[in-house]
Amino acid sequence: VDKDGTRVFDLRMQSGHKEFNKGRRTPTWGFNGDYLGPTLRAERGEKVKVRIANRLKEASTVHWHGMHLPARMDGGPHQMVEPGDTWSPRWKIDQPASTLWYHPHPHGATEKHVQRGLAGMFLVDDKPSSGLELPKKYGVDDVPVIVQDVKFDGADFDHGHGFMQSTGFLGDRTMVNGTMKPYQEVGDELVRLRLLNASTARIYDFGLSDDREFALVGTDGGLLESPARMNRIQLSPGERAEIVVRMKPGEKTVLRSYSHDTYGDAWQQRFSGGDDSFDILQLRAADKLRPSPEIPGELGELEVPHGKDSARERFFELRTSGINGRAMDMSRVDETVTRGTTETWTVRNEDGVPHNFHVHDVQFRVLEVNGRRPPAELRGAKDTVFVPGGTTVKLAMRFDGPADPDTPYMYHCHLLFHEDGGMMGQFVVV
Ligand code: C2O
Ligand code: CU
Ligand code: CU
């Protein structure tokens, strides 16, 4: 914390090596280390500043995924940091407690930069008026779970994919927080897992190995109004979920990703990874567990709009070739929104290839999925939503940041191969 009370973080983008498999040093990238980056954490109302140094041989950016902040600080493709340069964005945290993350966003190369290891979590805390009783001992009963799929070719990462894999790279194994075959020792009756799908294309359908129920307490942008019990939660790239799992003394259970059928036809199902299943993280409970307080029945109030006062409706047609028939152009502003207004965005997947949709700066409410009320896992604050083939989602979001007609924010498919290929557009707030 510096003199004027600003919380200051240092992030160094660097190359390195990591031994994922014994005896094999894999070339990697990371923030302040060989792979991934530190968890940053700040409180609502706090001013933050991040001093970013690019020690790589390539230009990159650092984007704050899910963060409400001025466009100039967003770290999108217009805020490139050249090799040897520094960039120090600053902003005031002005949103509810949530599990956000950061990753590079260089236009056309985001997939590559994330795959090499540039990603980390950014946790926002809020005054604990509610949600007070949720597990919150970081790394003990409140655990970050960054899930990535990988493949190796000897010591090196193999990032290749065939033309049939229309969603991009799919690995043949997964890791958590950069660790292969991971396990977590649990000493409390309840453990909160902050799941982040930091994979570039893979969609996970998380559940526990004995199919027990867990409580979903938070989504991308914060806590739900009340916990939702379920035994599966699907996350597409970029999405987060906070779940609370009840453990029994001495037991072992595994967080898995199950095969799932959400892609439309059998072809997409197979080549988009729907048939695959993985053991993600083993949970090992101690023989004696510390008692945890019950999960509160009410968690807080959602701060996303209902959409009834929407000033404007917009339509977005998703195809691999581009959004609304246009591939991303850095010099074209696609949408201009008015500061202080709520809008309804209707997003439709028109080409059968699985996509998702992410909007910078805002958290939105999913009003409808194919004309119906969304399922429990889509009733919280979201910044990224899965849009399988033939699906239409209707979203309500409010633009209340500062106006900046010269600096655009992005909206895009977060399957990074698609994003890099042009499934991205730009909007300004005026
Ligand atoms: Cu997670 Cu535009 O990004
Ligand atoms: Cu983002
Ligand atoms: Cu896509």
Automatic annotation (TrEMBL):
Keyword Cell membrane included in the entry's annotation: no
Domain Plastocyanin-like: 14-128, 315-430
GO molecular function, one term: copper ion binding
Keyword check for Isomerase: no
Keyword terms, alphabetized: Membrane, Metal-binding, Oxidoreductase, Transmembrane, Transmembrane helix
Similarity annotation: Belongs to the multicopper oxidase family.
Protein name: Copper oxidase
High-level lineage: Bacteria, Bacillati, Actinomycetota, Actinomycetes, Kitasatosporales
Shown residues within the full chain: 63 to 492 of 510
